[in-house]
Amino acid sequence: MKTIIDRNLCTLSKEFGANSCLVYICLNAPKDYNINRSMTGEAIGLIVSSNHNAVNTFKTQQTNKGDLQEDRIKLGSRRSVDHDNSFTAIYNESLAIDIVLLFAPKLKAKFVFYSKEPFTRDLSANIELINAKLLQAVMSINNSHKLIRQSLMSMGLFNCKTVDIITLVSDGYSREEVAAKLNLSVSGVDYYIEIAKLSFEANTLSELVYRASKYGLLRVSLEEGDKHEN
Amino acid sequence: MKISSTLAEFSRIHNIADTMFALDIKNSKLPLGFSKVNKASERELILSSSLTAIKYSVTSRKRWARKDPNTEISLSSEYHVWDYNDWPKFKFSPNDDLLKFGYEKKVSVEIPCMINPNWVGRFYLMIDNSRHIEPQALTKLYKDLSNIHYMIIQSNIDDINPFLDYGLIKESDIAILSMLANGHSRESIAKASYLSSRGVDYRIVQLKKKLCASNHSSLINSAYHNFLIK
To answer: Which residues contact A162 (CB under 8 A, 6 or more apart)?
Structure first.
């Protein structure tokens, strides 16, 4: 579980009347966790948070609760942080909101807000506006930190090279061009594509691209200046 | 969510008579020879805050969209005040139609879309007093507009696709695209859509031109990110 601190989230948490907040990406359906056998089993790859306290509280919550997949937080539901002898809570209230990522139906973004005081504002009153704001927030975080790509990588779902190759192919490069760009042979590129087809259960290249886009993977590459880093 | 009531509330807060919204495609992403100005009068999915605005929009676009030089400028600039000072003095002008419906001024504002960088949200603000929009009010205006933009996109993404509204992509094209994405062969697509396999090839070539793609993978990628296949 990697962590990034982003100051922009402070403004967001203030808007919601919270002290701090964090956001992470997780898969919608638990069965998708089995897509790759080498998956490390981590359910959360990367957390972007407004400060360290929020991350610590979140981690403690997770260990207390055990399995993440059992944790089904309804949209806008409110519950208090479990008080435990092992840790003194800095925050008394937490609020979790799920955001559907329109371009990646296989994923969802989860926002968790922490506050010392109860959330006074009636947040469910204008749920559409809140969703719109959070969607903008998660999109700009994704643009600056490559949130989705990094999350899926550190979950161990996808191999970096495979993603690079699918990205280039879907950008319209031919196999030969991809090979030249990544210092591979053409048959090397074919090998990675075959592996990817197997793990996505796709028969054709078009189908592979389609399946991969559902994870929001090809998205990031649309922007300029995002070339191949690990 | 009622979009019209959201737009109406926005208009009320900002002291604007009416607000209209349409999703648009960025110019750089259009196939050669396609003119948004010519198609503007045929667009159906322009969402408005009131009935007067709908009537105005239909009348004025039918009558003026192709003749008015402002149409083209507004479709490519971020902020545009529709200006008729250069219009021949004693000729019937679009401004007369504006006054007939009780408006004084028309401003169009473009909101960039992070969900799909090829799209923009375009708002038309109808002002019924000679008040200028002050620069300090503009920041809040932009913020509210982009919130509304994402609210509309989140709730109605399937209904407001600009590619369909401009008539650039037809329903039968979508069927072909989604079969392609699901790994069907040319022959099976031909059979299902009552075309010859060369007919399917032709349609795919046309689709590639329309979606600025160079191979099948980039076609699927582009179609997916323009929400033409789910």
So the answer is: A192, A195, A196
- Chain A hits for B2, Cβ within 8 Å: none
Q: Which residue of A has its CA nearest to B118?
A: A222
Write the CA distances from B127 to B51, B100, B109, integer angstroms.
Answer: 15, 13, 13
Q: Taking CA atoms, what residue in B is nearest to A171?
A: B218
**A213 close contact with B: CB closer than 8 A:** yes
The answer to whether B131 and B141 are in contact (CB under 8 A) is no
Q: What confidence tens digit (pLDDT) does each residue in A120-132 have?
A: 666 666 788 888 8
Tell me the three state secondary structure of residue B105.
Answer: strand
Residue A176 φ/ψ, nearest 5 degrees: -65, -45
Distance CA A223, CA B141 (A): 27
> Which residue is it, tokens 């329903």?
B171
Q: Which of the 8 DSSP states describes residue A19?
A: S
| Token pair recorded at residue A227 | 């070339």
List of residues 6+ apart from A38 with CB closer than 8 A: A156
Chain B CB contacts of A202 below 8 Å = 183
Q: For the segment A147-182, what is each residue's pLDDT rounded down to a tens digit?
A: 888 888 887 777 788 888 888 888 888 889 999 999
Contact between residue A156 and residue A36 where contact means Cβ atoms under 8 Å apart: yes
* Interface predicted TM-score (ipTM): 0.82
Nearest to A222 among B117, B155, B181 (CB): B117
CB A219 within 8 A of CB B225: yes
Structure tokens at A121: 């504002």
User: Which residues lie below 8 Å from residue A183, measured CB to CB, with a gap of 6+?
Assistant: none
What does pTM read for this prediction? 0.83
* Structure-token pair, residue B115: 């969900």
A163-177 CB burial, b ≥16 within 10 A, e <16: bbbbbbbbbbbebee
Residue A37: pLDDT band (50, 70, 90) is very low
Walk across the sheet containing A78-80 and list its strands.
Answer: A2-5, A46-49, A20-27, A107-115, A93-100, A78-80
Is A126 in CB contact (< 8 Å) with chain B? no
pLDDT at B111 over 50: yes
The torsion defined by the Cα of A164, A167, A172 and A175, in degrees rounded to 10, comes to: 40
- Measured CA to CA, the distance from residue A44 to residue A27 in angstroms comes to 9
Tokens 């950008």 — which residue?
Answer: A171
Q: Could you tell me the two tokens for A158?
A: 């996808």
CA distance B209 to B1: 36
Whole-number Å distance between alpha carbons of B102 and B96: 10
